[in-house]
Amino acid sequence: MGRLILIKHSLPEIDSDRPAHMWKLSPVGEQRASSMAVTVGAMKPGSLHASAEAKADETAAFITGTTGLMLNIDPRFNEHERSEAGFLEKDDFEAKVSQALLKPNEPVFGSETIAEAVARFEEGLHDAERFSPPGDMVIVSHGTVISGYVASKTGADPVELWHQLGLPGLICLNWPNPDRIELCQNFE
C-alpha cells in the first residue's frame, strides 16, 4: 500500500443530554473538517473508511467531497466503548482517558479495555486493506482508539499523543508496517 492516514474526527457539538457517539459536528467543526479535507484530497488517497459514529461519519463526508472516494463505514473504527460512563466534565474525562491509555489491558474506564479497542480497530484495518484499491488508506475515527493503536505500533506515549491530536487531527504512518509517525497535523 503506501500510507495509513488516521484522522480524529472534527469538533462536535457537545450535548450532555445525549451519548457522545450520537454527537454531530458543530459549525466550527464543519469548517475545520472542510479545511482538513482539502489537505487530505491533495494526498490523493485510494480509499476512505470511517467509524459508524456521527461525528466521524460527518468528518469523512467532507473528504468524500474533495476526493470523490466512496465512504466505507465500519463500526470496528468506533471509539473505545465507554458509553455507560455518561457525560463527564473535562478534567474528569481527561483523567479517565489517561488512566485507560496508561493501563491498556485493564478495564479502568468503559466496558472495553484499550487493548480490546485496538485489536478491534486493527482487525478493521486489515479488512479495509484487503478490500481497498492500491494507494493511501484513510481512516476517520476517534482520539482514544487512534492513540492506543499508534502507541502500540510506534512506542509513542499514548497520553501525549491523545492530547496532541486536534479536532480534527491527522496522523500518517507507513503501511502495512506502521512503525513510526511520518506526519502529525492539526486543523484547529
3D architecture notes:
This protein is of the alpha/beta class. It has a single domain, classed as Phosphoglycerate mutase-like (Rossmann fold), CATH 3.40.50. The protein is built from six helices and six strands, in the order βαβαβααβααββ. The chain is globular, with a radius of gyration of 15 Å.
SSE layout and pairing:
Blueprint: E1 3-8, H1 27-42, E2 47-50, H2 54-67, E3 71-73, H3 90-102, H4 114-130, E4 137-141, H5 143-154, H6 158-164, E5 169-174, E6 181-186
Parallel strand pairs: 1-4, 2-3, 2-4
Antiparallel strand pairs: 1-5, 5-6
Helix pairs in contact: 1-2, 4-5, 5-6
Major sheet characteristics: 6 strands, mixed
Helix content: 40-55%
Q: How many DSSP E strands?
A: 6
Point out poorly predicted stretches: none
Q: How far apart are the first and last residues' alpha carbons, in Å?
A: 29 Å
Structural class: alpha/beta
Task: Please state the second-level CATH architecture.
Answer: 3-Layer(aba) Sandwich
> Any idea how many domains?
1
**Gyration radius from CA atoms, angstroms:** 15 Å
Short description:
With 188 residues, the chain is of the alpha/beta class.
Distinctive features:
6 helices, Rossmann fold, 6 strands, alpha/beta, 6-stranded mixed beta sheet, 188 residues, globular
